[in-house]
Amino acid sequence: MSFWDFLWLLLIWTPLAVLWGVALADIFRRDDISGGPKVLWTILVLLLPLLGTLIYLMTRSAGSAEEARAATDRARVEPAPPTSAQQLTMLADLRDRGVLTPEEFAAEKSQLLGPRAAPGDDRAAARVPEDSAARPAAPAA
Questions:
Q1: Residue 60, domain extent
Q2: Start and end of every Cardiolipin synthase N-terminal domain (predicted)?
Q3: What is the per-residue pLDDT for 96?
Q4: Is 127 a domain residue?
Q5: Looking at residue 117, what DSSP letter applies?
Q6: pTM
Q7: Helices (H), 48-83
Q8: What is the pLDDT of residues 22-71, one digit of tens each?
Q9: Dihedral of alpha carbons 94, 98, 104, 105, sign
Q10: What angle do CA 28, 29, 32 make, to 5 degrees?
Q11: Burial zone of 127 (CB within 10 Å; 0-12 exposed, 13-18 middle, 19+ buried)
């Protein structure tokens, strides 16, 4: 393969193949096009790769870019905040390694779990949620 053949391949055919692949992927990804038009666009792009791809990319709706952006945003996954159990495990690990003193551990644990009644405190029983069956029925309007 000569230098000019390689240059022709690198600068012309490779970008065209990428553009062709992007057009085909976009045709199948779009939800606003039903089955029939998808088949016709696919045939046009496959039979006339350069012309079909250019026609498709010029005539596609402006909403396609917004759909692609929305799909990208949906694909991003943000990590969930740690649960109370995970935070307690982390605090226990820090205490076991000596990073936290027992007092610091107890303070962090009480802050994490919220105010709790001390053992033997009668207020603990008052905080137990009532059974829904024991609640009086709401008056009918």
A1: 3-67
A2: 18-58
A3: 93
A4: no
A5: P
A6: 0.43
A7: 49-59, 63-75
A8: 899 988 888 888 889 999 999 999 998 889 888 988 888 766 667 767 77
A9: positive
A10: 95
A11: exposed
Are the CB atoms for 17 and 9 separated by under 8 Å? no
Q: DSSP letter for 62, please.
A: T
Could you read off the pLDDT of 65-118 as tens digits, one per residue? 677 677 777 777 667 788 888 888 998 999 999 988 999 999 998 898 886 645
Question: For residue 102, is it within any domain?
Answer: yes
Q: Are 97 and 107 within 8 A, CB to CB?
A: no
Residues 36 and 63 in one domain: yes
Show the CA angle centred on residue 119, arms to residues 115 and 124, nearest 5°: 55
Q: In terms of domains, do 9 and 63 share one? A: yes
Q: How many CB atoms lie within 10 A of CB 27?
A: 19
* 16 found inside a domain: yes
